[in-house]
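User: I'm curious whether this sequence folds into something compact or stays loose and floppy. Could you predict its structure so I can see for myself?
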Amino acid sequence: MVLLTRGKDRALLARLAALGIEAAEVALLEQVDLPALARLPQRLKEGWDYVAVTSKEGAKRLLRAWEEAGRPFLRVAAVGEGTGKVLAEGGLFPAFVPERATARDLAQGFPEARRVLFVAGDLAGRDLEEGLRARGVLAEREEVYATRERDLAPEEVALLERAEVVAFFSPSGARAFARWTGRRPQAAAIGPSTGEEARRFGFPVVEAESPGLEGLFRAILRVLGR
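Assistant: Here's the prediction. I'll summarize afterward.
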């Protein structure tokens, strides 16, 4: 059985089912708003060269703040296919998306800028800020949401115990799984930082060769020998 660990990937479940692969999902994490979200609409009006976002949850909150601010002109740099899609569907089209979906690659390829606002979650790494500052760019971080591990129901824990392959969407997902069980099934990871964290907890890992859900889907198939 393949276990998806984000809790909002029905399309991926359906693709696996269409191939005759048993799959289920358990949301290991949840996101909650932080007080900084209330001041984000005003912050967006401060004349940033770019606003950067590296997650779908960050993109959703950026869109909400952008609407509340009256849709001011923004140049947005985004990490990942899913993040960019969330923004585009809300009418805020990313001006820059790096080829590889990592904050480090975003920093290395970032367009010329002097001031960048990073709309982040509390678990976001420091690669983007450090990379930009090394290039002489003022990068300010605004943490607008927090990721917390969910309390799982007994039937959800039972699915973790049954999983033969687990799909991880973030480093925090790998940490949460490891907290609930000592089992270390084969894992498919959506990207290099997630793969690195899963290996640190003892999972045998196959990483997606390309960013996004399509790459993860193919990684799952590789784990299964398909």
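Summary: The first helix runs from residue 10 to 18. Strands lie at 2-4, 23-25, 29-33, 50-53, 76-78, 115-121, 138-149, 165-168, 186-189, 205-207.
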